[in-house]
Amino acid sequence: MPTQAKTETIDELKARLADAQAAVLTEYRGLSVQQISELRKQLKGAGAEYRVVKNRLARIAIEGSRLAPLRKHLTGPSGLVIVRRDPVAAAKTLTAFAKTNPALTVKVGVIDGQLLEPKDLRAVADLPSREVLRSQVVGAVQGPMAQLVGLLMAPHRELAYILAERGKAAPAEAKTE
Question: What class is the 4-127 domain?
Answer without folding.
Answer: alpha beta
